[in-house]
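> example.struct
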């Protein structure tokens, strides 16, 4: 038993500790493990650590170090029994994710790209997007018709592709919908179909999560010729740019193939013009902050200053409303009216203060989720808390007057 435990502990490397610490957000442990891996070659266990680091995405500096060490001594890979058996499989993560190709950590990385985040990257549990699998090619016999029936008019989507034989993982983000048929304005009957129809957007991108040329270092390629960013076609699958990333069905060979020639997006994502597709998946992307965006849009269209973002505006408005709501019970509390009238007059304030507490808790969560500027968020609470303090003080005085009338206060 002791020998088994010892062997189990010996099999754990510093890279395992580093990745585990990153997953569960033990940042100090993660930092120390990374520091040792960067400074000491002896901290690496090859080939196991190289295979492990290739299965993860964002550890660019560690991957470069590992690749340099392997290039210096390739025999640690090619003369090892582990090198032949540990092929690159689905990229791993501590969180479950409904995909045969990517992990939850990959979804978090893609979410960063969608939000164009430069700092404070998302962890999977924090991402503001919902990834719903709506199409898996192997379950639909790679049918283009099934792609259109399941994915057309579904809003923003992410496409994930696994290349046959090489195991390369590439994909793209479409902020628009996919479509194959046009609809008549007077009804719902299709008048004609789309054939290589060019759609304009500046928010789409294509990417590589693992490639033979770039390894496990992610490669992002944003659109620069936005007038032809997305292509709609009834006889094709998802298409980005002028063949920057297209999915087609080869009728002569009865296989689904991809085309990838850099044209509309700023860099190529794979060193092949044509490739066979082993599997591809499509996820519908739903922004959990949809209501927040609508309210922000309303605020901006009304010409309100940028400082009046959603939390500041709604909390301040709520505080003013709450303050106003205690004016009536204040008047009733100090005049000679029936005690029941006084009590009923306080009910709106009691209800509002309860709703206010719930709203405040919700907005704290939204503020954390959306990473709203701390200065603005604090300003909103200072403003609303001022109204709340005045209202709460008045409400306590009112209740004391009522209790005194009921002879419950000495």
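> example.seq
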């Amino acid at each position: 038993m002791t020998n088994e435990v010892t062997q189990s502990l010996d099999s754990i490397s510093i890279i395992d500790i580093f990745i585990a610490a990153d997953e569960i957000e033990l940042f100090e442990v993660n930092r120390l493990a990374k520091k040792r891996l960067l400074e000491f070659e002896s901290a690496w266990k090859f080939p196991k650590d190289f295979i492990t680091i290739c299965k993860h995405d964002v550890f660019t500096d560690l991957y470069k170090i590992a690749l340099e060490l392997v290039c210096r001594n390739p025999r640690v890979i090619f003369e090892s029994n582990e090198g032949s058996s540990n092929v690159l499989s689905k990229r791993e993560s501590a969180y479950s994710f409904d995909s045969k190709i990517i992990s939850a950590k990959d979804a978090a990385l893609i979410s960063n790209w969608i939000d164009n985040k430069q700092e404070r990257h998302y962890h999977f549990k924090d991402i503001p997007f919902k990834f719903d699998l709506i199409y898996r090619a192997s379950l639909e016999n790679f049918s283009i018709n099934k792609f259109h029936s399941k994915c057309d008019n579904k809003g923003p989507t992410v496409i994930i592709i696994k290349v046959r034989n090489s195991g390369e993982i590439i994909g793209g983000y479409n902020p628009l919908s996919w479509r194959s048929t046009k609809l008549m304005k007077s009804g719902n009957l299709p008048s004609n179909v789309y054939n290589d129809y060019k759609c304009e957007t500046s928010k789409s991108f294509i990417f590589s999560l693992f490639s033979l040329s770039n390894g496990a270092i992610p490669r992002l390629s944003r659109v620069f010729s936005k007038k032809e960013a997305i292509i709609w076609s009834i006889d094709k699958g998802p298409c980005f740019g002028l063949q920057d990333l297209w999915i087609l069905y080869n009728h002569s060979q009865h296989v689904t193939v991809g085309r990838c020639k850099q044209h509309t997006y700023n860099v190529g994502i794979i060193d092949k013009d044509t490739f066979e597709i082993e599997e591809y998946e499509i996820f519908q992307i739903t922004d959990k902050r949809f209501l927040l965006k609508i309210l922000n849009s309303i605020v901006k269209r009304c010409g309100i200053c940028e400082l009046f973002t959603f939390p500041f505006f709604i909390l301040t408005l709520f505080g003013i409303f709450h303050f106003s709501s205690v004016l009536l019970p204040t008047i009733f509390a100090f005049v000679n009216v029936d005690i029941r009238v006084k009590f009923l007059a306080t009910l709106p304030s009691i209800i509002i203060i309860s709703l206010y507490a719930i709203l405040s808790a919700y907005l704290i969560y939204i503020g954390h989720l959306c990473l709203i500027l701390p200065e603005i968020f604090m300003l909103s609470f200072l403003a609303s808390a001022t109204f709340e303090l005045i209202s709460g003080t008045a409400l306590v005085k009112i209740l004391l007057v009522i209790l005194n009338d009921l002879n419950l206060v000495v």
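> remarks
The mean pLDDT is 73.
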